[in-house]
Design goal:
Elements: E1 5-14, E2 17-27, E3 32-36, H1 43-50, E4 58-63, E5 66-67, E6 70-73, E7 76-79, H2 82-89, E8 92-95, H3 107-117, H4 123-136, H5 152-164, E9 170-174, H6 182-197, E10 202-205, H7 209-215, E11 218-223, E12 226-231, H8 233-238, H9 243-252
Parallel strand pairs: 3-10, 3-11, 8-9, 9-10
Antiparallel strand pairs: 1-2, 1-4, 4-5, 6-7, 11-12
Bound molecules: adenosine-5'-diphosphate and magnesium ion.
Length: 253
């Protein structure tokens, strides 16, 4: 079985700033893989490398057995053309802290947009799927609403539906609930839990330790560009082995 994501010695520098310092990890299909760590430790950078929004400086990164952003010939790597990168990215859904919905489009239009524009799907098919997805995230009756008419939690659920509309094989979540008022966090986590139960492979950067413990299959603690500790969320959270993990958890738990 291929790993859905495999990182081998992934490094990333911005100029002289060495941000990722050799990340090795594997995410299996259907796994909910949680990534925690202090601000600035490189979590977002790593997620962005997975869909080649950032180019890695060294190492190898594979999604579903395919090298991300490059083609290997012999022992040389050739960067893929923008079009080929876009094709790879299509299979990876990404949900950010900020929902980034198109403000001038209704919820339904937001979810319909990419399949029609990118996949050249018929509007009828795309709309039917969009409505199904909005139903699924509990917003079936809000399809005609504009983002400004929705709460932050509802907007984030539309953003999840929008990512799902491309039928991704992998979903990346970058602190999807950290911009939300506390009372709206639960409704977004519920949607993510439902996705997880449905077998979606997910990498979730989060500070929601309850979610990590209950839904996560693996948990990685990252600090200063390295994986400090990883394992089953229950083990890492209740019995951390490293000082840095202990110190971080004592601040967030
Ligand atoms: N495009 C960029 N150019 C320069 N430095 C960056 C860039 N993106 C991120 N960084 C730096 O990389 C470090 C890690 O950032 P980030 O991946 O956002 O951390 P995290 O998501 O864990 O908070 C930070 O010091 C940040 O300033
Ligand atoms: Mg971040």
């Amino acid at each position: 079985m291929n790993a859905m994501v495999k990182a081998e010695g992934v490094h990333k520098s911005f100029g002289s700033a060495h941000i990722l310092k050799g990340i090795d990890l594997e995410v299996n299909p259907r796994e909910v893989f949680c990534l925690i760590g202090p601000s600035g430790s490189g979590k977002s950078t790593f997620l962005r490398c997975i869909n080649h929004l950032e180019k890695i400086s060294a190492g190898r990164l594979y999604v579903d057995g395919t090298l991300v952003g490059y083609r290997q010939q012999g022992d040389k790597l050739y960067e893929l053309k923008e079009k080929e990168v876009a094709a790879q990215r299509r299979d990876i859904g990404m949900v950010f802290q900020r929902f980034n919905l198109f403000p001038h489009m209704t919820a339904l239009e937001n979810v319909t947009e990419a399949p029609v524009q990118v996949k050249r799907e018929s509007k009828t098919v795309a709309r039917e799927r969009a409505q199904r997805l909005l139903d699924r995230v509990g917003l079936g009756d809000k399809s005609g609403h504009y983002p400004s008419q929705l709460s932050g939690g509802q907007q984030q659920r539309v953003a999840i539906a929008r990512a799902l509309a491309m039928e991704p094989k992998l979903m990346l979540f970058d602190e999807p609930t950290s911009a939300l008022d506390p009372e709206l966090v639960g409704e977004v986590l519920d949607v993510m839990r439902d996705l997880a139960e449905d077998g979606m492979t997910m990498i979730v950067v989060t500070h929601e330790m309850g979610f990590a413990r209950e839904v996560g299959d693996s948990l990685v603690f990252m600090d200063d560009g390295v994986v400090v500790e990883s394992g089953h969320p229950r083990d890492v959270l209740t019995n951390p082995q490293h000082e840095r993990t202990k110190s971080f958890l004592s601040k967030v738990l």
